[in-house]
Amino acid sequence: MSQDSDVRPKLGAVRTSIIRRAGRPALLLQDPLGLSQEALVLPPDLGPLLTLMDGTRTEGELRAALEVRMGIRLSPERLAEIVSRLDEALFLENARYRAARTAALEAYREAPARRPALVGRSYPADPGELHASLGGYLRQVPSQSKPAGSIVGLVSPHIDYARGGTIYAQV
């Protein structure tokens, strides 16, 4: 993109964290939806740039706003590089992002089964270990806790198996 471009970059919903890299603070940008597995690390002084990327300013206007408001000077080439990296990572709300989101949504809807999101974190990834773990919870359920009649519906909140496994087994 060039300074004269009429493109108005708009930062999408990204998770931004402050990290330390080589002993210095940095901004870590990640996609909370998981469309992109990429993470970008930017210098913290570019934080104001991210807040200005709301889709109302061209690259030239972004540069001017940064200089006037914050005293930060970015060359057209450096800004174009940053915008390009954000675009490649699918962090900008634009046609590439919308196409990737649509494709991911279609794949999700058409999948015969959903990929477990917490396998290996909230419960064992190994099928044998998982079977043993769930069986252990079921063995802890007292026999008198069986319902007397037929169940029509059930609401059971959950947190994780380590804290609530026995309760889930009773339910």
Description:
A 3-stranded antiparallel sheet has the order 1-2-3, with no helix packed on it. The N and C termini lie far apart (57 Å). Strand 1 (15-21) and strand 2 (24-30) form a beta hairpin. The protein has 6 helices and 3 strands. The protein is mainly α and 171 residues long.
Structural class call reads mainly alpha
Compressed to H and E, one letter per element, the order equals: EEEHHHHHH
Globally, the shape reads elongated
**Tally of structural domains:** 2
Q: Quickly name the level 1 CATH class of the largest domain.
A: Alpha Beta
Q: In summary, what is this structure?
A:
The chain has 171 residues and is mainly alpha-helical.
Question: Can you tag this structure with a few keywords?
Answer:
171 residues, mainly alpha, Outer Surface Protein A, domain 3, three-stranded antiparallel beta sheet, 6 helices, 41% helix, 10% strand
